[in-house]
Amino acid sequence: MSLTEESIALDHASAPKPQRYDSILIGVDASDHANRGIKDALDMAEIWQSKVSGAHVYAAKLHDQRFRQMEGGLPEKYQEEQELEKQRDIHDDLITKGLSVITDSYLDQVELGCKKRNIFYDARSLEGKNYVQLVREANSGNYDLLVLGSLGLGAVQSSRIGTVCERVARRSVIDSLVIKNPERQIKKSPIVVAVDGSPLSYGGLLTGYTLAKEWDVPLHVISAYDPYYHYVAFNRIAGVLSEEAGKVFRFKEQEKLHEDIIDAGLAKIYQGHLEVAQSLAEEMGVDITTRLLDGKPYEVIQQYIEETNPGLLILGKTGIHADDELDIGGNAENLLRNVSCAVLLSHRGYTPATETLAESTTSWTVQAEERMKGIPEFVRSMARLGILRYAQEQGHTVITESIVAEATRDLCPVSTSSEESEPQTPMEWTTAAQALLETIEDPGQRESILMKAEKKARQSGTREVDVTHLRSFISVREETQDSEAKCPFNPSSSDQTSVTSTDQPDIEWTREAKDRLEKVPAGFMRNMTQTRVEEFARKNSYAAITPEVMSEKYAEWNEGSQTQEQRLNWHADAKSRLERIPPFVRGMVMREVESRAIKQGVDLVTAQFMTESSGSWEDNMKFHEKPDE
Q: Cα separation of 227 and 215, whole Å?
């Protein structure tokens, strides 16, 4: 495409300039999160002297409908026609006047705050289904920013985000600021902006520049890419493709292409996003800190948020891979739910002038376009952007096949020739890394993290995997897990309920079986053995528990116990105590004690540590059904 007046105008229109919000809509309900939203919204309104509107939705018709549905269940004295009509009038008066008074009181709080700051205010009292009316109001074209709390008056301790907030944020077509911490003031906290090369992320970046400059707070700009997913995926594919199917799919060539592009190319492309951000920051006179993150984007961004403790995270509502049907991106959705700071979902787009100029002043030959088709579709747009940047740096206005090859070599310095590829040799693992990996109970997750950690080690230039290569993949996961110690006989005990004689039919024990049970050490081990053997008998429809039934269950435990290997050092007293545990469960007890020790950073297992562990298992009163799961 040639340089035209239209493209020049587009380039000039793309020059960075401070963002502004002229009209702000605040959802209010007197909850702590909503009240903080009012204060933060007014802090933003003061920057531009924006118009502020407070909105509350009440459901008078819904209440009236529910009352009519419940009339049949009223006490008998209210069933008489005269009394029923009286109650209808009372309820109608309560709904029409009471809810209106409550709504006005909510909105008065916003008006009071606006008066103190000389900000223009408009009250919006809405009737109907809460999220429907709030979305309709936000998308009316009268506002450019929506502010709402992540939780309302119905929040409980386990709540992360309320249904109204999630539904509205998903459907809003304007920027949405969601308040996550009612104790944190945004204007006095650092800001983090995540960019991925999409117009919406760059739009959010401009907003971040403006807020950071106005409030004089630190601004961090980050970009995250995942070079591990396709390594894991191709290893899984290799396990299911037949030799013939592998030839049709050209498996080895595809794998090598993915490895080269993802390992080196994506890193350069996403680093390029940060360089664009740095260039824009210099134009706008803003100091920023940049960081390139590798890993599952929402996970490593969440880790960065926990590390830097900002008051606000800004990111595009959808990302670089979005299609027209997508309402919210996967990373935005996960971060909206999981991070502890406020989240601003940007719906305003911006394309940096450098990229606009490169696209509008550069043409591609047919051969170059054909070569681009060899790049996997899911990264083609990013690769195209990287090649455009390369061509612009080199002063080219026409991209030929040779330039694509040059740019690809620059982006992906790893050799693509099979002759130069090194044979894959097994990686070495430190003892600590192996022990940490073993704490991951799900086999599929464990295998996936193993491959990611090995790839991360290779990227860092080593053939040995240590704990640092694992941490980036499991640290967030560890913090979200239940910290309660699990019984060594049932590692999934937090998701199960113990089986007791009160909620299951009694099952008979023969005299011989009872005698054998008495040989198990008295206390929680005997109690849990009895519970699990009874559960085993019921599951297999045994009419009574005999020594043979116990032997079947013991054999199941023994199979898992025999596969366990010692991973840590044990004090002599602890080792002696372990030896006194019946052989058929000894290995599983050792495994769980060591897993608990590793999670707590304990290097030497003592008798006291075993006592603490067994105490938590006794509280749980649960047995392990399948030791290897």
A: 36
Per-residue exposure over 281-317, b if at least 16 CB sit within 10 Å of its own CB, e if not: beebebebebeebbbbbbbbbbbbbeebebbbbbbbb
Between 154 and 414, residue with greater pLDDT: 154
Long-range Cβ pairs for the range 433-438 (8 Å, 24+): 433/465, 433/466, 433/467, 433/469, 433/470, 434/567, 435/567, 435/568, 435/594, 435/598, 436/467, 436/470, 436/474, 436/598, 437/470, 438/567, 438/591, 438/595, 438/598
- By the 10 Å C-beta count (0-12 exposed, 13-18 middle, 19+ buried), 543 is classed as exposed
pLDDT at 582: 65
Interacting residues of 122 by C-beta distance below 8 A, sequence separation 6+: 51, 52, 53, 54
Q: Which residue has 């464990």 as its token pair?
A: 446
For residue 41, the SS3 value is helix
Query: What type of residue is 572?
Result: A
How long, in residues, is the chain?
A: 629
Give the model's pLDDT for residue 226: 86
Cα pseudo-dihedral 61, 107, 327, 278, rounded to 10? 180
258 within 8 A of 414, measured Cβ to Cβ? no
Between CA 288 and CA 276 the distance in angstroms is 12
Return d(Cα 372, Cα 353) in angstroms, integer: 24
Look at residue 29 and tell me whether its pLDDT is greater than 50.
yes
Residues 276/352, Cβ–Cβ less than 8 Å: yes
What the block records as the tokens of 331 is 């990373």
Question: How many angstroms separate the CA atoms of 315 and 111, rounded?
Answer: 30
Rounded CA gap, 290 and 99, in Å?
49
Give the separation between CA 68 and CA 563, rounded to whole angstroms: 65
Phi/psi-derived region of residue 49, left when phi > 0, alpha when psi is between -120 and 50, beta in every other case: left
Whole-number Å distance between alpha carbons of 566 and 546: 33
Q: Residues 544-565, buried b or exposed e (16+ Cβ, 10 A)?
A: ebbeebbeebbebbbebbeebe
Q: What is the token pair recorded at 424?
A: 């894959």
Handedness of CA 556, 562, 566, 570 (dihedral sign): positive
Task: Please state, in angstroms and rounded to a whole number, the distance separating the CA atoms of residues 312 and 189.
Answer: 7
Q: Which of 36-50, 217-231, 538-552 has the highest mean pLDDT?
A: 36-50
Q: Which domains does the chain have, with CATH numbers?
A: 17-180 (3.40.50.620), 429-480 (1.10.8), 493-620 (no CATH)
Nearest alpha-carbon partner for 393 in 293, 279, 223: 279
Q: Measure the CA–CA gap between 149 and 164, rounded to whole angstroms.
A: 9
Tell me the Cα Rg of the chain: 31
Closest alpha carbon to 458 in 431, 433, 424: 424
pLDDT tens-digit series, residues 556-592 = 766 655 566 778 888 888 887 777 776 666 776 787 7
Query: Whose structure tokens read 């005698």?
Result: 515
8/42 Cα distance (integer angstroms): 38
